[in-house]
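pasting for the record
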Amino acid sequence: MWRSFGGRSALSWPSIGALLALYRRSPGALCRWSFGAILALFWRYSGAILALFWRYSGAILALFWRYSGAILALFWRSLGALSAAIWRSLGAILAAIWRSLGAILAAIWRSLGAILAAIWRSLGAILAAIWRSLGAILAAIWRSLGAILAAIWRSLGAILAAIRRSFGAGGIGGRLVFTNVRICELAFRCKTVA
């Protein structure tokens, strides 16, 4: 097996024994020798390797060209399966978002109900306070109106008493009335004579 490359190989059972002995004596020297041996082997058989590659490159390309359709079909099916999986995952994600949105809207609706109930209770308290304040304001206005009407009534009584006193005997009002009566009588007589 070791002599298959051209009948002369640097590797043989005696050479392996020599390598092991060299490794026992100096591992560094073995590393340097093995690196040189690898370079020598590569340099010796690189032509054969390139010839083999050149010989079978057409077959390799033919195989690739022959099975490229199958490879592309497999890739296309894998892409379809991947797209289907992504679509299913997207549907599941959208369904989860929709369910979460429903829960969020329900929570908002419940909170809105609580907020409206609190506003309604506060509005009732505000209206009750306004009604009590309005009652106090109306009572104050009624009391003030009573005082104003009483003052007007007393002033009106004084005015009427003064008017009655003026129409008494010798008063200004009596003299004014007598003068007005005389004027009317004279005017009637003049109209009759004419």
